[in-house]
Amino acid sequence: MNLYKSYFNDELETPVLFDINLKIETGEFVAIMGPSGSGKSTLMHILGFLDVPTKGHYHFKGESTEEKLEDDLAHIRSESVSFVFQQFNLLPRTTVFDNVMLPLIYGKTSPLKRRDFVMQAIESVGLKDRATFYSNQLSGGQQQRVAIARALVTSPEVIFADEPTGNLDSASGKHVMEILQNLHKKGHTIILVTHERTTAEHAERILHIQDGRIIDDEKGFTRRIASQIKQLK
Amino acid sequence: MRTKDLLHSALEGLTRNISRSLLTTLGIIIGVGSVVLMVSLGATFERFILDQVSTFSGTTFEVQPKGMEEFGKSTLTITEADAEELKKLSTVKNVTPAIFIAKKVKYGSEEADPMVLGTSKEIFTNWSLKIDRGRLLTDGDLKGGQSVVVVGPKTAEDLFGDADPLGKRISVGERKFTVVGLLKGLGGAMGTQMDRIIYIPYTVAKTMANKGQYVDYISLQAVGSVDLAEEDIKSLLRKRHDIKNPQNDPDKDDFVARSFEQAMDIIGTVTLSITIFLSLIAGISLVVGGIGIMNIMLVSVTERTKEIGLRKAVGARRRDILVQFLVEAVALTLLGGLIGVAGGGFLGFLLTKIAAKFLGDLSFALTITSILLAMGMAVGTGLVFGIYPALRAARLHPIEALRIE
What we know:
With 233 residues, chain A is of the alpha/beta class. Chain A is 38% helix and 24% strand. In chain B, 58% of the residues lie in helices and 15% in strands.
């Protein structure tokens, strides 16, 4: 794909992404790294069907996404991708259980199976005993784990995480990253957006983005060597 | 999204701020309440009046000088001779003139102020009045100018209490009368007026009233067609009074002739138009209430922008968001509608109870139609005023919505 994205504000064009060419394979764990304002979140939004490119092509699972209508994109979001946000974005005054169930009510899961799926997701992030708590009764780390459970519940192919550790203390952040790595090992494609090198290190491929352009793509052999050297240290 | 999920999320939205939800629905509560109240009261009073009037046979006619109903017109236009001529028509029967006498009625120290009607026996047939004890007026009473009186039960009670009225001597003005008959009560609201009337022979009343040949009222009944009788009565009186009125314009006549059937129709039309008018005014408050709903839904959409963004991010389509907010708006108005129906119904019931103290028999009519009408209007208001905020919510861009703090 080669993507361009501009924001338009009162006919004033603000280009954000230039000629992004990128291919992400199924099952990859990719970190998109860059300073704030570099366009990394915008790239993630486009990849996650929350936004559309101004120009260019994006193929998802071999299928072009250009002609898709908003409701088609909603359908892809419902079936194939999910998000973990920096701000958690849980519904307040709503239980953990209901928060995690939210994506299912827009999908095709039969109401009978929902309970099991929700409980499985909550268990996998280690919050089984908190299922009936209200989301605002939990700590930040727990809230982010609820958000991950919510992202898991539909068993999506791709999970997007936008600065998932940005609002967390280092211990909680580490816990969250471990969960993401486990998900990757189970075969989910993970796309992580971050500006911290240490967070990005968890990924097997790191895309460096600056001023709307990919300036470096560490992956494969070099990336493995780099992380092994790091581990040896 | 499934219906159950929809209702669940709508209820959640509403219960998140219960006092605000209730205050918002106040406009709808008042609107629906007043619609129910107006329609029900209208139905109650229409039924009440028709119940009363239907005591009379629809074929009974009354003929009165125009001045009896319209201020400024002469009350002296109809004569005894008119009544005599009417008797000759083949389309009518039971013709009897009547004279009202405005005099105090006394029995010993007891005083009453009933309507004193000088008339003949036909009036009892025309007005469906039945004798309870004693006898009605007879032709003999009229011929002999007998000082006898038939009393209505209410006046009898006022004058004699529980004592038997028959044979008692009462005075009407200066003249003494012997009570020869007591009528059966009509009951109801009509009864409160009708049961007070006392009846004396026409010939006697004529000498007391000093109106010469003029009479206040003619009562008669149609034989067969009411319309034919009306035509005959009118053309005869116009001919005798030298009135040319081929267009049948009631303004040109110096009399009013109408059947009770027409009177009932008029009452029905009048109460219907009053009900419609009042309901329209009540409907305006529904519109005002609807604007309140729209306002609060817009606030809610703004407050929950982030939630909308999230719902979209996890796969909600535009339609899901639209329906969610529409259901919330309709749930608000439905809630208001239910409270309004209960409140309006209760108020109507109370008002009817109070009115019944003055008017006698009065049963409250809370019709299913009025409830359905009011609820329908409430739901309609929710839909009409909820669609704009819901559309705004549905059109939000997921990223922009999520960015809002």
